[in-house]
Amino acid sequence: MSSALLPKPQMRRLLARRMKFHLFGAFFVSVGCAALYKFGIAEPRKRAYAEFYKNYDPMKDFEAMRAAGVFESAPPK
Fold this sequence. Notes:
By secondary structure, this protein is an all-alpha fold. Helix content is about 75%, strand content about 0%.
């Protein structure tokens, strides 16, 4: 009697149905993570580098390192 009350389990196409659900879920999670990384880390980093190099003078930096004795091939003046 109790077996008549329970519904039959879904056996056909069970893997395909679960795979479709998990593939869509994995796709949306990965797109979300990529968007968070791009807008949360990559873009601010690009802006910070652009701001730094906007006023950066490599010759001034080289002369400061030269005066500090960092380079062996370019002795301090």
